[in-house]
């Protein structure tokens, strides 16, 4: 009979770390055939790896913990959420624009959909518009902000909160426009705002740029 230590050593060589470190308890299971037992052990390794990968994606996403209760929305909205939970909009590179008054659950809904994407193996990144502006403005002068900008180009879903909550300074608008246009072309965006899209250009020096940005964001939404 093979000594368990030899199995552990083989697992280490094969980089099956959960088996090698004893997180999966190797024990006799006489009710299983050799092949079934091997499948059980490998399934445990895969499950633990998937859980670890999910935890890593969730930490990196910086998604806020916001409880979302679908039971509290009306049937029409619940039906729409059911469709969004299928994540087909990610496969089709579509955007979601969530508009509503403050404290009405916009961020909770976005976080809920973001977690569904994480559970499906997608990478997600959440940030407020002020945080995005900071990264854009400093990425050419700071290695840390450059790394953060590179990271937000990797996820398949980027969630931007508080969009147009306050007027975007005119000097920041061109860089924001180019960054959002780039992100919009290569992934799905969830944009959270408390302002109707028709009012985004109010007070902006370059109203055409803002209106073009709205058109680009809504073309795939």
In short:
The chain is an alpha/beta fold and 221 residues long. It has ten helices and four strands; from the N terminus they run H-H-H-H-H-E-H-E-H-H-E-H-E-H. A four-stranded parallel beta sheet has the order 1-4-3-2, sandwiched between helices.
Task: Detail the topology: elements first, then pairings.
Layout: H1 4-13, H2 17-20, H3 34-61, H4 75-85, H5 88-91, E1 96-99, H6 106-119, E2 124-128, H7 129-138, H8 143-152, E3 157-161, H9 173-186, E4 188-193, H10 207-219
Helix pairs in contact: 7-8, 9-10
- Provide the CATH architecture of the largest domain: 3-Layer(aba) Sandwich
Count the domains.
2
Gap between N and C termini: 61 Å
* N to C succession of SSEs: HHHHHEHEHHEHEH
Helix % is 40-55%
In what range is the share of β-strand residues?
5-15%
Structure description:
The chain has 10 helices and 4 strands; from the N terminus they run αααααβαβααβαβα. With 221 residues, it is of the alpha/beta class. The protein has 2 domains: 55 residues; 150 residues, 3-Layer(aba) Sandwich (Rossmann fold), CATH 3.40.50.300. Strand 3, helix 9 and strand 4 form a beta-alpha-beta unit. It is elongated. The model has no long low-confidence stretch (mean pLDDT 88).
